[in-house]
Amino acid sequence: MGFFLETLIGGLMTGMLYSLVALGFVLIFKASGVFNFAQGAMVLFAALTMARFSTWIPLWTGWSGKLLINILAFGVAMLVMVAVAWVVERLVLSKLVNQEGITLLMATLGITYFLDGFGQTVFGSDIYKIDVGLPKEPMFLLDHIFEGGILVNQEDLAAALIAAALVALLAAFFQYTSTGRALRAVADDHQAAQSIGIPLNRIWVIVWSVAGFVALVAGVIWGSKLGVQFSLSLVALKALPVVILGGLTSVPGAIIGGLIIGVGEKLSEVFIGPFFGGGIEIWFAYVMALLFLLLRPQGLYGEKIIDRV
User: What's the pLDDT tens digit per position in 168-218?
Assistant: First the structure.
């Protein structure tokens, strides 16, 4: 029982990180109708920016305080992601208004490869380290109930708590701020929102900036765990099945979908994997996504769209 709970908790914590990346997909799709295939590249680009500036700032200033350097590097990375959002809106989205969905998808694919190539040109292709002070040592819980206790990685626990706090913050932002309500109005009906004076161009910049902030937090957490390398964008794409499970337009769906994928892949790898030689964790999420596309294509919480002819 203790080992099962240990695996379950590990899956929940990983699932929260998947949910964090999936939120970027959901936010942009809700506000602009664009399936942002570049979200994984945004995670990588944001993490690269944070990692490199945390190295460059001490060289430029002579400062040695890790906390101050990390705060400044995070701030610079956030400004860079806002600039990326503005450029995307100006040079891409504003030129493709009312275009077909496949056109917008191809545009985000172009953004993906541009960010990957531009990041490699500016920051290099080495593996970089992000050290934000997350605890690395594991700890044992409930050792008075289960023999040996339950092993929990403190870094994973801290990352899951940060992801949960950010999800709660975004929920409050959408629910209680005027900008959040404007974003929800745009999500419901672009033309109606525009008719009452909500500027779509500004809203798109805001939502891409928020998605950039989410990508930055996810990139910092994943970069702290795995190191900042170009395979990070592939890890971030694990959020695609999460979005399919939860629904493209649902923030709660992104959270539930992430938890399902995180728990499912951990449990299947540990308890079923040995019978098939392992490797289930690699493809479990995508098989789940395929099943949902066949049986419930709108996802658990997505809107079922009916076209009337």
Answer: 888 787 778 887 777 777 766 667 777 777 777 788 788 888 888 988 988
The pLDDT value recorded for residue 179 is 78
Which pLDDT value is given to residue 148? 66
Segments of the chain scoring below 50 in pLDDT: none
In this predicted structure, what is the pLDDT of residue 240?
Answer: 86
Give me the pLDDT at residue 305, please.
58
For residue 189, the model assigns a pLDDT of 67
Domains of the chain: 2-295 (1.10.3470)
Amino acid letter, residue 32: S
Residue 228 main-chain phi, psi, to 5 deg: -90, 110
CA dist 137 and 217 (Å) reads 21
Length of the chain: 309
